[in-house]
Amino acid sequence: IVIISTEFIAKEGSLQKARKAYYDGNYETVYLELYGNELEESDELVQTRCAIVLKMQRKYESYQNHLKLGQEVKALNALLEGLATYDAINLEAQQYGVTDEVDKVKNEIIAVLQAKYSLDETQARELLQNEDQISYTKSLNHIILEKDGALASNS
Questions:
Q1: 20 to 30 A Cα–Cα from 67, which one of 21, 95, 110, 114?
Q2: Could you give the 3-state DSSP secondary structure of residue 35?
Q3: Are 29 and 13 in contact (CB under 8 A)?
Q4: What three-state secondary structure class fits 131?
Q5: 45-82: string of b/e by CB count within 10 Å (b at 16+)?
Q6: At a CB cut-off of 8 Å and minimum separation 6, what does 39 contact?
Q7: N- to C-terminal Cα distance for the chain?
């Protein structure tokens, strides 16, 4: 009886923490708190919604992490992958009612692309169309060199 009560209390604590985190917009905490628990339908819905938003957030976080490590090509690539991820999950986001949350992350990505790399959404999407990895990587390097002014001094 004690074991069952302890498990029940722990599960309920996780569910309460997850619900609060959901309303606070902390989708990673929600997902982690719900993961592995037997969930009611409403909690499964919350978990699915969070998983969708997290796919976008992780691309933006990947950008930030690569930037901190001085890996600017990988950072720029993570932003571009964020746009590709947006396209891949947009329909699912609409179905689960998290379009606003996903759009918010997409808009953050576009803002960084514009401010830091002078790329608008159309230009970014053109880069994503490049199927040749070597050419794609050269394009990213070119953008970074241009941003840093290295190309202007070499011309």
A1: 21
A2: coil
A3: no
A4: coil
A5: ebbebbbbbbbbbbbbebbeebbeeeebebbbbbbbbb
A6: 47
A7: 78
- Alpha-helical regions (H) of the chain: 2-24, 27-34, 41-68, 72-96, 99-117, 121-128, 133-148, 150-154
- What angle separates helix 41-68 from helix 2-24, to the nearest 10 degrees? 60
In the chain, what's the furthest Cα-to-Cα distance?
78
* Residue 73 near residue 137 (C-beta atoms within 8 A): yes
Name the residue among 100, 98, 99, 124 with its Cα closest to residue 110: 124
> 112, 103, 107, 44: which is closest to 77 by C-alpha?
112
Gap between the Cα atoms of 95 and 47, Å rounded: 14
Phi, psi at residue 70, to the nearest 5°? 75, 20
pTM above 0.70, yes or no: yes
